[in-house]
Protein: DUF4829 domain-containing protein
Amino acid sequence: MKGNNFEKVTGQTLYEWLADGIERDSVEKRLSELQPEQVIEEYFEALDQKDAKTAGYCISKKTLLGNLTANMLNDALFNERIGLPFTDVDIGAKSSFDNLKSAKLLKVELIDEPEENAKIFRVTVNLQYNKGMTIGNGEQSWDCGMVYESPQTGWKIEGFGH
Structure:
């Protein structure tokens, strides 16, 4: 294994390897059949409805794994809740939605297709929070990276940025 990456060792991408161990429920199955723009719409609808399960299913497995140990309390081994983009919640909060009032998707447009299984969209959203910490209130635009994980899981959000 020395000097080899994950794909070279397993013969699969991380997404393909993870998909083998996923038992899909009805929500995951429904989301796996959607186009990337529809997954983005589902994500913001789930945020607005404070539905952590559906929102989590819209995020790539690789991103979820990365969030497992990011921005956590010093005495914790891992985060017990899913870190969802745009919830802007305090570290150690009981709920992913403690700070989010509303999340409305206003527009989605494709801006790049760097690879066959990757697309970048510009999303315009209106976000409202109880208190502004790292993200401000109001209308704003973000770039949303999407990745096609596997036939079992479909298109997922890999991340947001500028």
In short: Strands lie at 100-115, 118-129, 138-150, 154-161. The mean pLDDT is 84. Helices lie at 6-10, 14-19, 26-32, 36-48, 52-57, 61-67.
